[in-house]
Design a protein that fits this description.
This protein has helices at 14-25, 39-46, 72-80, 99-107, 120-137, 156-159; strands spanning 5-10, 31-36, 60-63, 90-94, 112-115. It is an alpha/beta fold. Strands 2-1-3-4-5 form a five-stranded parallel beta sheet, with helices on both faces.
């Protein structure tokens, strides 16, 4: 039997966390959902600090932007600047439809941005669509640490077509 898919939900709203949990319960896939309620807990889990020392690295992060303390923007910025974490897809799941939030999230490296709907059925459909895309359509890297020294950045000159 395959290992469960690890999903980290960073969400301070208990109602939204429950909706996500309920939506994932009906999945055909074996998903283990971990919920943290603020950015500091998310960073500690990702770096396996304190009470999160034994946690597995998530395969997908569902991240709310508007969190108490260290907000979702800071969490996203930290993830995408850390060589050991940047490969983890981050799906921003926010109640904000503001263009500035969308642009800023993509600029910082979000893999997708989803506006939370108000009603349960639509919310459930969105969670299922995110689950389907990230776990049945897309090929994700293994949970192990990325190989050090093999993932050098590509120079823009290497991307320029020749004459």
């Amino acid at each position: 039997m395959a290992e469960p898919i690890q999903v980290l939900l960073v969400e301070d709203n208990p109602g939204d966390a429950d909706l996500t949990r309920e939506s994932l319960k009906t999945s055909q896939l074996q998903i283990e959902l971990t919920v943290v309620v603020n950015g500091t807990q998310a960073i500690n889990l990702l770096h396996k600090r304190g009470q999160f020392a034994s946690r597995l690295t998530p395969d997908l992060i569902l991240l709310d932007l508007n969190l108490p303390g260290l907000d979702g923007r800071a969490v996203l910025w930290n993830i995408k600047r850390d060589d050991a974490l940047r490969h983890i897809p981050v799906c921003v799941l926010s109640s904000s439809a503001a263009e500035v939030d969308v642009l800023e999230s993509y600029h910082m490296g979000a893999n997708c941005y989803v506006v939370k709907p108000i009603d349960f059925k639509t919310f459930q459909g969105i969670v299922r669509a995110v689950e389907n895309f990230w776990f049945t359509v897309v090929k994700l890297p293994c949970r192990s640490e990325p190989p050090v020294g093999r993932l050098a950045p590509v120079s823009p000159t290497k991307l320029t077509p020749g004459p």
